[in-house]
Amino acid sequence: MARITPFKSIRPTRDKVSLVASRSYQSYTQSERESRMDYNPYSFLHIINPGYKYAKEISGEARYNLVRNRYLEFKEDAIFVQDDTPCFYLYKIIDRDNNVFNGIVAAASVDDYENNVIKKHEDTIESREIVFKDYIKTVGFNAEPVLITYPDSTTISNIIKETQKKRSEFEFTTTYRDTHYLWLIDNNEDIKVISDAFNKMETLYIADGHHRSSSSYLLRNDLKNNNDKHKGNENYNFFMSYLIPESELRIHEFNRLIKDLNGHTKEEFLIQLDAIFRIENRGVMSYKPTKKHHFSMYLDGDFYSLYLRKTNYKFESSLEELDAQLLYKTILNPILGIKDLRNDNRIEYISGKKDIINLKSKIDNNEFAVGFGMIPATINELKKIADDGLKMPPKSTYIEPKIRSGVTIYEL
Q1: Torsion over CA of 145, 186, 204 and 138, rounded to 10 degrees?
Q2: What pLDDT score does 42 carry?
């Protein structure tokens, strides 16, 4: 039974929300960040990139303290305000492709995360978990919710439809042509109906935000162990989440880029691949696979298709059926020597939403030696792996929607 609770969000005022809201910090190039901060004093980027004020990069504890200072300044200047009573927040996104996402922003339970009521499907990188835990411990807030998916619910869907008949608290369109809406669900009856509906669900699944949820778990343990009066209802026992029905989730793949061939020549590498895959040289024209267990490869100016020789390979678990794991088991580990996907700096990941030409250019520019593409995982694969208690390799999925940072803020 999942425990989902309302909270008193810190939010930008209606007149400034379009100026405050930002994409995740990592999604901007340095020039994009600088441009936005030069011309928009209200951007949330000013909070999460506080060193800009001093025209230099600042890291670690010093940066975290400056983030908190900038955040407090936004509150002091009434750019941010806090709701008087706990609410659920209905957040709707219509993207440029007319995909519609309707979700509930709420506080999810760390206990549910620990007890596997909220299930995980993807492995995490330990160093990132610790960094983010230390970050939120110092700044005292979370401004980017974990994306959680739940089985479609007629009860919740009906409340969403009724709520959307009212005027939204705000509406804004981004330069990416995504339109965002927010409604407050502050009626006690609706809050109870939503809470009860989630309470009847045996399992929820993290779709995106494994590092954020894991960091919240680590932080809860730190604060609990240092609080002699710990009761279990403190804010740090929860983390902000954006809960959407499974039918509205959009899953994309992450492609893999490898910096070298692990000492192999091109010919040696292709010969080793031939034992596992049927290989076809597709030439200079870009190629993307269309079936499970098929991969694209870009190497030395040519695209290749790789078709798994199934007679030589047996699938022994739901995880091994996953293409990201299959690529690791057949190529990345045994041939290219990538054993630790969490920490090896020879591998990088690029979202499948980006054009395949982006992958090609990084290899043509000698940043990497070879790149691999695959088709996206499905929601059923994600759930099956989580139900079996298994973990996908890092960066197995790029999942939408992507909610904007700084629109709802959860204080710890």
Answers
A1: 30
A2: 95
